[in-house]
TrEMBL record:
It comes from Cuneatibacter caecimuris. One of its GO terms (molecular function) is acyltransferase activity, transferring groups other than amino-acyl groups. SMART domains: HTH_ARAC. Keywords: DNA-binding, Transcription, Transcription regulation. Residues 134-280 form the N-acetyltransferase domain. It comes from the Bacteria. This is AraC-like DNA-binding protein. Residues 9-107 form the HTH araC/xylS-type domain.
Length: 285
């Protein structure tokens, strides 16, 4: 895992240093000295996105920041983001942010599609299912830095997330013992906040390097058997066909959640998913 992580870190360093350029898989592979096929495979395995999607989301995020915090024209921002025309930039921006660049600017609120993918700190020892199950616990205030570091890694799953509002809600969840965490050496491998009254999972994130370890099933088992017993458990995510979805609908379906009603949350179109203990779900490995 360490070698793979080092390759990805090198590729991401190159991407971040060249966000205003037209970046392709070939140019990155050449710059870091790896086969583009090998680089593509391990990038998707590690980050959960193709290099094309990661670059696009990072460029749009930096563009959104400029829209809110600078006086640059939309055309200028389009060119900085590597687009040859303002119309092409506007089209993809609206697909991902659900607002035109001008509408987004007028809202005066920045939120990211994709933050820099930081793999500076990772757990290298093997993780055992029994140990992980036993170590899922309620989060404490001292866990907040590790929790927020994981939020940065999985921000792609939470459109319109405002960091200040989120921190306030996180502190409240911790105080009310509604926030669960699995951590190793001060690195959050997975976090989840729940609502006892509604039976909803308000936030759920698993570290990309450990998504194949069965952690999601362990959290769902704990919630279903210990915390939200005899309740239908709900979670919201992207609607079908949303180009901003990096795989979360598929992830929840594989866990056993079923589609429910369409919603709009914080101005963003979403869909509720339900997991019913009565009908069961795919919570096995």
């Amino acid at each position: 895992m360490v070698n793979k992580v080092e390759i990805i870190k090198t590729a991401i360093d190159y991407i971040e240093n060249n966000l205003s350029e037209k970046i392709s898989l070939s140019t990155i592979a050449t710059a870091v000295g790896y086969s583009k096929y090998h680089l593509h495979r391990i990038f998707v395995e590690t980050v959960g996105l193709s290099i094309h999607n990661y670059v696009q989301r990072r460029q749009l995020t930096e563009s959104a920041k400029l829209l809110v915090f600078s006086d640059k024209s939309i055309l200028e921002i389009s060119l900085i983001a590597g687009y040859q025309s303002q119309q092409a930039f506007t089209n993809i921006f609206k697909q991902m942010y659900k607002k035109t660049p001008n509408e987004y600017r007028l809202c005066e609120v920045f939120y990211p599609l994709q933050l820099r993918f930081d793999l500076e700190h990772t757990v290298t020892e093997e993780l055992l299912q029994q140990e992980m199950q036993a170590e899922i616990r309620f989060a404490k205030l001292t866990d907040i830095p590790a929790w927020l570091s994981l939020v940065d890694l999985v921000i792609d799953g939470f459109p319109n997330l405002n960091s200040a509002d989120y921190l306030r809600e996180l502190k409240k969840s911790i105080a009310e013992q509604r926030a669960l965490i699995l951590e190793k050496n001060k690195i959050a491998l997975a976090v989840m906040s729940i609502n006892y009254h509604s039976g909803s999972i308000d936030f759920f994130g698993v570290h990309p390097l450990y998504r194949q370890c069965g952690i999601a099933n362990l959290f769902l088992n704990k919630v279903m058997n210990e915390l939200l017993t005899d309740k239908d458990i709900s979670i919201t995510t992207f609607r079908e066909g949303d180009k901003a979805d990096t795989g979360y609908r598929k992830f929840y379906k594989e866990l056993g959640f079923s589609e429910a009603e369409l919603l709009v949350e914080f101005g963003y179109p979403t869909q509720k998913f339900i997991f019913s203990p009565k009908t069961g779900g795919n919570i096995n490995e």
